[in-house]
Design brief:
single chain, 225 residues, OB fold (Dihydrolipoamide Acetyltransferase, E2P), de novo design (two linked rop proteins), 37% helix, 23% strand, elongated
Length: 225
């Protein structure tokens, strides 16, 4: 039976000598995989690009087979901007590594639509990965609540700690992350990189097999250097 899906391209793996196994975050199914016959010889898909996938589900197969893929939305600025492309790769890696099976809901998909639009239109990029991570962990249901005067962050329990008795300020990673969750302007740009590292450490603690070291390293050596 043929069906049409709408989704963001997330990942690809080799399926055979000529075919690919494509992962999309679709509106109806969440993280979903398709077999694309002859896909290795066809036009490359853009990371975090929004596509329409016409596919057929066959009896006895776990994956639907692609009949046609077409652009749903053209993100021309992202497509032609090297740093935006890098951020798109990072976003895809985070989604692929942290999305639970059968994790699909309209709110999460709409969040990704907003992220894609914002990335395409963004002129300031230094804190975009930080803001994306905040949106994503909110979709996963593990986003901590910011506080007025954070002194530390409890990774195990997902809590910003605040103790008015202490005279010592929190580390820059804690302060920056807390500011971003309150939608405040990040005062010290030097805090973005350690804040992202803290969030990644937090996700890794709560989601098994979350490994984004390669894309995070590339991001740190370029945008966050």
């Amino acid at each position: 039976m043929k069906q049409v899906y709408q989704g963001f391209f997330i990942n690809k793996h080799t399926y055979s000598d000529t075919s690919l196994l494509l992962s999309f975050y679709s509106q109806s199914q969440g993280l979903q995989k398709f077999v694309f016959k002859g896909g290795r010889k066809k036009t490359a898909l853009l990371p975090f690009g929004r596509y329409e996938i016409e596919a057929t589900k066959k009896n006895g197969f776990d994956f639907a087979f692609v009949n046609n893929i077409s652009n749903h939305t053209h993100y021309l600025s992202t497509q032609n901007h090297p740093l935006k492309n890098l951020i798109a790769f990072f976003i895809c890696d985070v989604i692929y590594q942290s999305t639970p099976a059968s994790h699909a809901d309209s709110v999460t998909f709409e969040t990704l639509c907003i992220v894609a639009d914002d990335l395409n239109e963004a002129t300031e990029l230094y804190d975009f990965p930080l803001r994306f991570l905040n949106n994503w962990i909110m979709s996963l249901g593990i986003c901590p609540q910011p506080v007025d005067r954070p002194t530390a962050f409890d990774i195990e329990n997902g809590l910003f700690l605040s103790d008015i008795r202490t005279i010592y300020p929190a580390n820059l990673d804690v302060i920056t992350w807390n500011q971003s969750l309150k939608n405040e302007e990040v005062i010290d740009k030097k805090g973005v990189k350690p804040a992202i590292n803290l969030i990644v450490k937090y996700i890794r603690f709560h989601i098994p097999n979350f490994k984004i070291e390669k894309t995070l390293y590339i991001l740190q050596q370029t945008l966050l250097s």
